[in-house]
Amino acid sequence: MTDPLSRTGATVGEPVATTSAPPTAFLEVRDLRVHFPTDDGLVKSVDGLSFQLEKGKTLGIVGESGSGKSVTSLGILGLHTTGQYGRQKARISGEIWLDGEELLSADPDRVRKLRGREMAMIFQDPLSALHPYFTIGKQIVEAYRVHHDVDKKTARKRAIEMLDRVGIPQPDKRVDSYPHEFSGGMRQRAMIAMALVNNPELLIADEPTTALDVTVQAQILDLIRDLQKEFGSAVIIITHDLGVVAELADDILVMYGGRCVERGSAEKVFYEPRHPYTWGLLGSMPRIDKEQTDRLIPVEGAPPSLINIPSGCAFNPRCPYADVPKGGITRTERPELREVAGGHFSACHMSPEDRQRIWTEQIAPKL
Amino acid sequence: MTIPEQAGAAETSADPAPGESLLKVTGLIKHFPITKGLLKRQVGAVKAVDGLDFDVRSGETLGVVGESGCGKSTMGRLITRLLEPSGGKVEFEGRDITHLGTGAMRPMRRDVQMIFQDPYSSLNPRHTVGAIVSAPFKLQGVRPEGGVKKEVQRLLEVVGLNPEHYNRYPHEFSGGQRQRIGIARALALKPKLVVADEPVSALDVSIQAQVVNLLDDLQAELGLTYVIIAHDLSVIRHVSDRIAVMYLGKIVELTDRKSLYETPMHPYTKALLSAVPVPDPRRKKERERILLQGDVPSPISPPAGCRFHTRCWKATEVCKTKEPPLLALRTGHQVACHHPENASDIRLPSGSADQAPGA
User: Fold this and answer.
1) Per the database record, which ranges form the ABC transporter domain (chain B) (predicted)?
2) Cβ of B172 under 8 Å from any chain A Cβ?
C-alpha cells in the first residue's frame, strides 16, 4: 500500500498537477491532499479539499477529531512538507494560492518568508505553543525581527504595543513575564499578539478557545473579531464547536473523513443544511438557547479510519438515509461536491429535492 | 477544623422515595494545605471548596457547573469520599459518612459510584474489559446471579457494547466506547447515586450525544440519581433537573433548570450564560453579552465579602465586606447575592442591599 519512494523522501507524492490560472480570491485551495505514509498504510488526512477565502472574511472549518481540519491548516502554512532532519513526512498535492502566489510549488525559503508575515497561526494550547524558557516579550520580539530589520528597542516597543492591543494589563511590565506567570486566557492573548505582530493578511486559528473557560472564551472571540475588523485580514477558524463558528464565521466548511461534505454561508449551513452529516452535527448538539426535553439525535457509529475510508461516500456507514433511492448510483461511487444553491455546495448522492424534503419534514422540526 | 460527631450509624435500609433527599451536604469544606520548607510548615491553604450546602434528591439529576478552579471536581470527590473533607457534613440516606474510614465506607461504595472524565486514564490498560467491569464484584464480594461473566456481558450490552468484546483491552476501543466501559463499571453494583465528573467533555459532538442519551436511558430504566459535573452549560441544560452554579468554592445559585436558564438571578450566572456562543448565526446580533473583566481570583486568598465582587458590574460597598448567604429568594431558587438580577419583585432580607435593582 505504501509507496516505497515516499520513504526515501524523494517524492512529494502524486505529481503536482499542471498549475492552472491564478485565482482571483485572496486565498484559494484547490484539491488539497495531505497523505501520511505509515506502517499501517496510507493515512489520507485530507483528500481533495477546495475552498476560497476573501480578505476581511472569516471561514469556519468544522468537523470532529480526525476529520482533517488541523492538517489542512498546517498544510496551508507549509508545515508538513519537511519533517525532522529534512525527511519528507507528508505527501501533499494540490494548489494553495495566497494573494496570487502558489505555495506548494514555491521555494521553501519563500514560504518561510511568508509564514509569520503574511500568514500566521494561533494554536489551541498556548502553554505548549509558547516557549517556557523565554519571556513573552522576547518571543514576540523575535517573531517581529525575523521579518523586520529593526533594532531590539523598536521591536520591544512594538511588542508592548501589541500586548496592549490584545488587552494585557500593564504591558510594559508583563512583557518581561514568562508564560507560566500568565493565566490561560492571558497566554492565549499573548499568542494572538505574537501571531498579529507582523499584521498578517491571513490568520489561522486552530481551536483558539477550546482550552479556555467560557467567560474567557467570550473575551478571546471578541478580540479576534475586533482585530479582524481593524486589520482586515482573512481568518480561518477551525473548531468542533458550532457555537463558535456561528459567532464568528461568514462561511462554513464542514469536513468529514478528510473531505468537505458541505460548504456555504453560515446562514445556509445552519438554516438550510443539505448534508446528512451536518444534520447529525446539529441534532447531536445540546442547546443552551432552548428548553429541550427530547433526546438528542446522535450520529450513530464512529468516524471512519483514515487508512480505510469507505470507497464511496465516507459517511455512508453512519448515514441514516443510506437506503434512500439515489437513481442507480452505487454505494462505491464517491459523491462530488455539487452546488445546491448559489455558493452553497454539498456532497451527497440524494437528490436535492429529497434532501430538502427530509430537512424540512424530518430534521428541522426536531431541532 | 471540627469533627462532627459520628451520628448514630443506624442502617436506613429503606430506599428514599423519589424526590426525597438521598444525599445531604452541609457546610462542606475542603482546604488543601500549602506547606513550605523542611518541616512542611503550613503557610496557607487552597480553599477549593469553602462551605457548600445542598441536597441531592432521589431520582433527580443535579448538574454542577462552573469554570475551572471553582471546586466542582473537588466537590464530586468529597461526596464520593475519595477525599477527606476538612469540615462540614455529608449524609447519605440519613447516615453521616463524612469521616468514615476505608473499611466502613466499603459497603457504601456499592451505592455511590463515579464516572470519570478521561476515558483513557480511568481504565487500566493492562486489564481486559471483562476484568475492568467485573472488578466491583470482586472488591465487594458479590456473586451476581448466573455468574460474573454473564453479568458483565449483560452490562456491556446495556451500555451498547458488543458482549463478545469481553476479552479485549481498552486500547482497542474508541473514546466513546471507553466511556461506555466506564459507565458499565459504575453500574455493575446497581448504585443509587452516580457522580459523573465531566462525563462527555472528552468526546466529539456526535459521540457526546450518544453518551448523553445513554445516561438518560439508564436513569429512566434503573431509577438512578445523578450528580453531573461539567463546564459545558449546554450539556448541563440538557441533562439536569436542578443546577448548582459554583464560583471559587461556593455555590452562588441553585435552582431548577428552567429558572436558571430563563431567569438567572446571580450576576455571575447571567454573565456565564451570556458568554456561551449560541449555534444560531441570526441571533448573535440581538444577544446582549456581558463580558467579565479579568480572571478568576486565586482560591488561596479569595476576595473578602462576595467572592465575585472583583469582577461584578453591580458590586457596591456591601459586597466587599459582607458575604451574601445562599438564600431561597423564590421557592426553590437559592441565590447568594446582594443585588440579584430578575428580582424586582423581591424584597431582600434587611442587612443586604438597600434596594434590589430591576432586571
Assistant:
1) 23-273
2) no
